[in-house]
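Posting here for the record, re: adenosine-5'-diphosphate.
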Amino acid sequence: MVECPHLLLENLSTGYAEPRGRRTVSSELNLGIASGEVVMLMGPNGSGKSTLMHTIAGLLPPLSGQVKILGRSLARLGRRDVARALSLVLTERVDGGNMTVWDVVALGRYPYTNFFGKLQREDEKMVSEAIEQSHLKGMEQRLIAELSDGERQRVMVARALAQDTPLILLDEPTAHLDLPSRLDLVLMLRRLAHELGKSMLISTHELDLALSWGDRLWLMDREGKVVSDIPEALVLGGHVGRVFGTEELSYDVERGEFLVQREDLRPICLVAEGIPSEDHRVYWTMHALSRLGYKRSEDTETGLKLVVTATDWQIKDGEEVRSYGSLTDLVSALS
Ligand code: ADP
Ligand code: MG
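Prediction output follows.
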């Protein structure tokens, strides 16, 4: 950890002070984000990611403890100073009305403009730069309402960049996006963080995304507790399995995916012939067989034996051999 992290949470407890009593969501968090670091905040639905984001953004008061940005306590900053310290990108689809891309990105400059909100030349330059950095050049005059979800999300990132804050918080920014747009957005955020030295906190419930692209992961469990480390260390430490696993689902550390726990799996001995055992054909054959209720076994003596070659799939049952020309045919024969 660097000496003065962009964000520091000290004994922070989040939650809601309801009329019938306090409702604590997370308690006693001690976490930090360094300059240029991308932290993924990952946890199941309802664990408290948005509550934490809102608390860090100053929209929800902490139940106790404090949020520090660049060494200064958030509670002591005025609204304008908070807006210069952090920007927040939310999940909700924005209703842009008749606003253009330029208009929305320019909103990011409001903490710097005078009473009338008039942009100076310097502000316009920042808006242009933010648009360029978010790959929106040439789209300045497009209406927000007429953009794709991925483009609209890039506009919200551009607005956050125009706000020129050391810390950017993004609450489930990929929620409405398809896989390629999700990756596009996350890679763009990583590049911006690393090139511009911005700290990013990105919440997601998508395991793959967080494990692959976070410099660090804050893994939040259903009780709102958080462990922080690099993603791989959290996998190896069993934390990912503990947080996301259920009675039926267990996290397979070797494959990096969740497997359904089943007692009734039938053994199948799968061997590659004339192709490497790590060939894609072998992997996807086992993928299909798992769905049919088979588990891979090393035992060549009992049970079914399946040979995968470069051209076919052969089931050997004692002396009898049946060959299938496609995986589809094999699967329908075994179903
Ligand atoms: P996540 O973003 O991880 O899905 P949230 O932070 O939205 O989780 O919710 C965490 C917990 O706080 C949930 O139990 C939720 O019901 C509760 N909660 C969320 N918003 C409020 C609110 N405005 N008042 C009281 N409880 C809330
Ligand atoms: Mg949420």
